[in-house]
Amino acid sequence: MTARIAYCTDMEKSVLSNNFEKRGWIQVGPDDEWNFYWAGAQTCRSLFSVDSGYRMNDNQMINHFPTHYELTRKDLLVKNIKRYRRELEREGSPLAARDATGRYIHLDFLPTTFMLPADYNLFVEEFRRNPNTTWILKPAGRSQGVGIFLVNKLAQIKKWSRDTKSSFNPALVKDTYVISRYIENPLLIGGKKFDLRMYVLVTSYRPLKAYMYKQGFCRFCTVRYDTSGQELDNMFVHLTNVSIQKHGEEYNSVHGGKWPVRTLRLYLEGTRGKARTDKLFADVTWLVVHSLRAVAPIMASDRHCFECYGYDIIIDDQLKPWMIEVNASPSMTSTTANDRIMKYKLVDDIISIVLPPDGVPNVHWNKIPANDKSGDFELLLDEELYQNSDHSATHRGKNSDRHSAPRWK
Amino acid sequence: MLRQGLGTNITAIVNRLASELQNTPFYNDFLADVQTTMATQNFNKERFGAECYEWAQGTSLDTRLRNALYHLMHVQPTLLANPDTPRHVLKEPLTYIRKAQSAWERRLVKCVNSMTAELGVPLSRRRTKQEKEEFSDRWASLSTEETDLTMIRPVYAPKDFLEVLASLRNPNYDEAVEENLWGSIQLPFKVNDIKGLVELYGELAYCCKHTGLDEAVAGEYKTNLTLAEERLILGQKVVERNHGPLSRELIKSGCPTSLRGVLWHQVLGLEITDKHYKHFDELVQAVLQHDLLVDKLIMKDIQLTASNDDQYFVFEDILFQVLLCFFRDTEVLSHFEHSSASPPLAVARGNTPSPDALVAYPPCGVIPFHGFTMYAAPLSCLYEDPVPLYFTFREMYCRYWYRLHIVTSHSQGAAALALQFELLLQSCETRLWQHCCAMSIQLLPIVFKWIVRAFSGYLVPDQLFHLWDVVLAWESLEVLPVLALAIVSFRRENLMDVTSQQGAEAVLADITAISVIPLLKLALAADRGRERDP
C-alpha cells in the first residue's frame, strides 16, 4: 500500500487545499515530514538559507527555486538579461544582433531600465537625450503595485533622490529602485489599458524545462487611458494590478476586469489579421524562453524544486510585447467565479506535471511527464528531450532535416 | 428563397424587382459607371444589345449588379411575393396572429407610457445646451454616465414573451379532431422536422470539412497545410472576388477568423462608405439633441448584460454609442414592411393628434427588452470602429433578429422556432421528453432564453461566431432550435438524473464549454441512428 502523501502549505487558499484534498493528501505542519510544500517566498528564504541546515529528502518537493529572486526581483532580472545579451554578443550569436540605433533586434523585450541609485547618472544621460518621455519608478522587491509612481520631469527624480538619501527611514533606504521607460503607447481595447498575465511553469533549469499555461488573462484598468499627462497620478489609469483596481469606483466584481486571452486572440485576429496576431503570441513565447535562458546558468537547479511564475506583459499599439516583470508567487486569490475555476485547474495541472507517474514526489524521476499530464499547459521547451532526440539521431546516423536550431548550453 | 412558390407571375415579379432596383441608391452610381466604361468600348451599332451583354459578362460591373440584386431580394423579401397581395397580408397572413401581435404591441406601449408617468420622465425631451455639451464630452466613455437608473426596469424579458406565445390559440383549430400538440406552444404551424432540417442543412451534416471542427486536420487539396491555413488562402481569394453568394458558400464550411468581418459584410451586402459615416454622425447628433426615455431603458440593459459579461465588458463604451444611435435610426422602420409588427406611434408635443402628426416612438420603432444589447455585443470582437459595427448590427437585426421577439407565423419567428424545438425534442429525444413530462420539467423556458438572444452571451464568442456563420450562410434561424436540441441531447444523461425544474436549470445553466459545430453535425446526423435507440 502506498503511503499517504503529506502536504504543507503557507497559505489558506481554497484553490490549493481543494486540489490537495481531492488527491487524498493529508495536511501536516512545516516541521513534520511533508512530501509537498506550497510555500511562500519567506519560508523558502529561511529553508534554503545556509544557516538553517535543512536538507530535503528524496521524496520532498517544494514550489520555489532557492535563487528565484534572480528572475523575480526587478533589478536582478534586468541585470541578468543585460548580461545574457552581452554574452551572446561576445559569442557572435545572431540573436544578439543590433540595429542602426543600437537596439537589439531580437532581444528587445525589456523596456530601457536603470537601477537607482546606482545608475542614476546613466539614467540622467538617457533622460536628457529623450526629454519628453515618461518613466516609471518601482521598488525592486515589492509587489501588488506598492510604491510605484510615474515621473516625466527630471526635477521629480531629483526630489525623490534627495528625499531617500536624507531620510533615515530604514524601509526607504533598504529598497533599491528601478526606473524604466514607461510604455506610453499601450494597446488599448475599448479605450482602456490592460496587461497580460501568463503563467509559466519551470520544473528544472539545467536542463531547462518550461511550460506555458494556455489560459492566461488580461487585466483591465477600470478607467479610460489618458496620455495628456494630467492623470499621471491616477493609478487607476496606469497600473493594471488587480490589488489596485479592486479599489476603484468602477470595479466590477462579476468579471473583475479580467478578460480571457482566448478572446483577446479572437479580437486581434478579427481586427488586425492572423499574421500579426500569430507574431504577437510567438513574440510572447520568445520573450519567456529567453528570460528563462538568461537566468538558467545562475539558478540553483535544485531537483526538489519547481516554480510557477506569473509573467506580466504589456502589449504596445504596434503589437509588440514588453516584459514588465515576473512574479514568483502569483496570487492564488480568486476575485471572480471564473477566476476560481481557472486557478483551480492551474494548480491541478501543475501538480499533474511535477509529480512522477506514481504520484509520489521523487528526486530521481527524470521530470519528463507523459503527454496526457499537461492539462492546459503547453510545452515551451524541454532541453533534455531536445538533447536526447539529437543524440539518438546522430547515433542512428540519420540526417536530421530539422532546421539547425541554436545550441543550448 | 426563389423556390417558394413564385407561381406563374414571374414576369410581374421580375419587372417589379427591376423597377425597385432603379429606386435604390446603388443604381445611379452604377449607371454612371456603366456609361463611362462603355464609352471606351467600340460596339457594333446593329448588334449593340448582344455585344454589350457579352462584354459585361464576368466583369466587375456584372458582379456589382448581381450583388445589388441579390441583396435587394434579401432586404425586401416582399418584392418576391405575388404583386396582388395586400400589404397587411404580406406582413402577416393569419388574422389571429395579427390580432395577437397588435395586442402585444399595445401592452408594450402601455408599459412604456406608465413608466413615463411613474418616473415623471418624458418620452422625449430636448437637451439644454449645457447638457448637450456635457453629453458630448462624455461620448467616448458613456459607461461612466452617472444617470440614476435604479428605478428603470426592463419593459419585458424573454420569459414574459414566452408566456404570451404559450397562451395563443388558433380559433380554427379543433383539438379534438387534429393531431395533438403536447408542448407549451399550441400553434399548428408548419415547421421542418428533423428530416427537413437534415435536407436543409445537408452540407453541414455530411459533406463539408468545417473549420469549426477540423481546423488542425490536413488540408483537402494541399496536404502540407492545415485545413485552417488552406481555407485562409481560399478565403482571401473569395474576399477579392467580392460576390455575395460566393462568400456565402465559403462560410458554409467555416469562416477564417481574420476574414470574418469582411466576409459577413459581403454576405450582408454591406459596403461601408462615406455615406455611412455621415449617417452615423447624423445619428450621433440626434442622440445629443434629444434625451429619450428609451435611452434609459437601453442604458440599463447594457449595465445589466454587457457590462457584467466576462467576454464583452471591455466594449461597453462602444456599445453605448452603437445602441443609442440605433434607437434614433428611422431607416430601421423600413423592415416593418416584411414584419408582422408595426412601430408604436406617438404624437409630437404641441401637435394635434392626426394621422399626419404621428411619429414612431422610439424613432426606430423597436422597444428594447432585457438582453437586447446582446445582439450587438459580440460584433465588438469583430469591428473596432463603431460605424461598421453599427451597420452590421442594424443589418443583422433587420434581417434576422427582429423575428425573435414578435408574434408572427413566419417559419423563423419565435413561436415557430419554439414549436420546432418541442417537436424535435418529442421525436428525437423521446425518452428524455417523457422523463421531463413525468417530472414536470419544462425545457422550453430554459432553451427559449437561448433562442431569443441567438445564444449571444451564453456561448463563448468564437463558438457564437460559428453559429452566426451558419445563420448567415443558410439564411435561416432554424439552426437555433437544432443547436438547442443538440445541447439537450449532449447533456441527456445528466437531465435524465434530475427530478425537478431547478435541477434541469442547473444542468443547462452553463453552456460556455459547448462546441457548436461538432454538436450540430451530431444532431443533424442523428436521425440515421434513431431506430437503434434502446
TrEMBL record, chain A:
Location (main, coarse): cytoplasm
Compositionally biased intervals (Basic and acidic residues): 398-409
Record-linked PROSITE patterns: TTL
Keywords from the named record: ATP-binding, Cell projection, Cilium, Cytoplasm, Cytoskeleton, Ligase, Microtubule, Nucleotide-binding
Keyword Ligase set for record: yes
Domain of life, source organism: Eukaryota
Keyword Nucleotide-binding set for record: yes
Localization in the cell: Cytoplasm, Cytoskeleton, Cilium basal body
Region (Disordered) residue spans: 390-409
Record GO biological process: microtubule cytoskeleton organization
One GO cellular component term: ciliary basal body
Reaction it catalyzes: (L-glutamyl)(n)-gamma-L-glutamyl-L-glutamyl-[protein] + L-glutamate + ATP = (L-glutamyl)(n+1)-gamma-L-glutamyl-L-glutamyl-[protein] + ADP + phosphate + H(+)
GO molecular function, one term: tubulin binding
Subunit structure as annotated in this protein's UniProt entry: Part of the neuronal tubulin polyglutamylase complex which contains TPGS1, TPGS2, TTLL1, LRRC49 and NICN1. Interacts with PCM1, CSTPP1 and LRRC49.
Entry similarity comment: Belongs to the tubulin polyglutamylase family.
Protein name: Polyglutamylase complex subunit TTLL1
Organism listed in the record: Portunus trituberculatus (Swimming crab)
